[in-house]
Design brief:
single chain; globular; 364 residues; alpha/beta
Length: 364
């Protein structure tokens, strides 16, 4: 298969899904796939066997979830436009407004629909200001318990999303306790509560039993249905980005140029200044792997190999499912990676290829 392409391996996806299914059973919580992280719908039929539905951040995402992912479809957006709201409502089981202003604005249109409100508890686990929903002057959700309680009769649920790459149960427990203490009065008036995503409960050695017990305790205390919105927790480790070395150079370091681009194909790594992952990353040969775009900083990272790299060598960047395919772009006109799926029986099939017509159609 011609590189570059994303390879989704169902045998690596399955362990995450099995942990999600166990947590649902043990805690009573429902789990919705966060499409902002992963929206490759060719595996939605497989994932929907282990999850309860999907949650979105825009009209197009909620429509995709409605059309492609079985189960519930939750709609959320930082702000809905007038021309979007009718279709958002038509494609969703629940709509979550980001502000009291939006709830009020679309009160008539959403009458009779299950409605919720996003709450900003003022704390998060994000290590990056760029991704911190509790950063100063944040626009993400309402923060005043009194103001929220004043509109409690107009909604039946609340959504909190303040975990970010949080692999610490103790930290999750601490923040949930804060939420209980600060918003307990209004929580008692709700029927459902979403605790968002960003909880890395499918990671190795995560105390899944303690999380299940805590979620169950929370649900019983307030008499609510709990929802989680796993994104990366659902797909971590499930895909690779397959590339080929096109050229090698030496300029103080060994340089290998591949037929892909971090700017176009793994954008989150560039945004957060993090390297890609190659396994194994061992050997006495040190090489900097570079993208083929003209951006000087289009660098996947520095890695170690047993032998010198040469043109034609194949490389696999690990953990390439989350925030990759949903962010790929046509910078420099670099060909977008195809998308392939490896089935549980080991067979591999291409589900989407991108060519010049796609590049041209994205412009005018």
């Amino acid at each position: 298969m011609q590189t570059p392409y994303y390879l989704i391996d169902k045998s690596r996806l399955l362990p995450n899904l099995e942990k999600i299914a166990w947590l649902r059973e043990a805690s009573g919580a429902k789990c919705l796939l966060a499409l902002k992280c992963f929206a490759t719908w060719s595996v939605f039929d497989f994932m929907s066997e282990y999850m309860d539905g999907s949650t979105s951040s825009s009209l197009y995402e909620v429509r995709l979830g409605h059309e492609k992912f079985l189960g519930e479809t939750h709609a959320y957006s930082v702000a809905y436009a007038d021309h979007e709201i009718d279709q958002v409502l038509a494609c969703s089981d629940k709509i979550i407004f980001n502000s009291i202003g939006q709830l009020s604005k679309f009160s008539d249109e959403s009458e009779g629909h299950i409605r919720g409100l996003r709450v900003n508890p003022g704390v998060s686990t994000s290590e990056f200001d760029l991704a911190d929903p509790a950063r100063p002057f944040s626009r993400l959700g309402e923060h005043d318990p009194a103001a929220i309680e004043a509109v409690a009769e107009q909604i039946s649920g609340l959504m909190f999303h303040n975990n970010c790459e949080n692999d610490s149960f103790a930290r999750f427990d601490e923040m949930l306790t804060l939420i209980e203490d600060r918003f307990g009065a209004v929580l008692h008036k709700m029927e459902w509560v979403s605790l968002g995503g960003g909880i890395h409960f499918t990671g190795a050695d995560y105390p899944l039993d303690r999380l299940a017990a805590r979620l169950k305790e929370f649900a019983q205390k307030f008499g609510v249905q709990v929802y989680l919105e796993p994104g990366e927790a659902a797909i971590t480790g499930a895909a690779t980005l397959e590339v080929t070395v096109l050229d090698t150079m030496h300029n103080g370091k060994n340089l290998a140029i591949v037929d892909s681009s971090i700017e176009a194909h793994m954008l989150d790594l560039l945004i957060y200044r993090e390297p890609a992952k190659i396994a194994p990353d061992t050997g006495d040969q040190a090489w900097m792997i570079c993208g083929k775009s003209c951006l000087a900083g289009d660098i996947f990272g520095e890695f170690r190999f047993d032998v010198p790299l040469k043109a034609g060598d194949r490389l696999s960047f690990q953990d390439a499912a989350g925030y990759t395919m949903v962010k790929k772009n046509w910078f420099n006109g670099v060909k977008m990676p195809s998308i392939a799926i490896r089935e549980l029986d080991g067979t591999t099939r291409m589900v989407r290829d991108f060519d010049y017509s796609d590049f041209s159609a994205a412009l005018s």
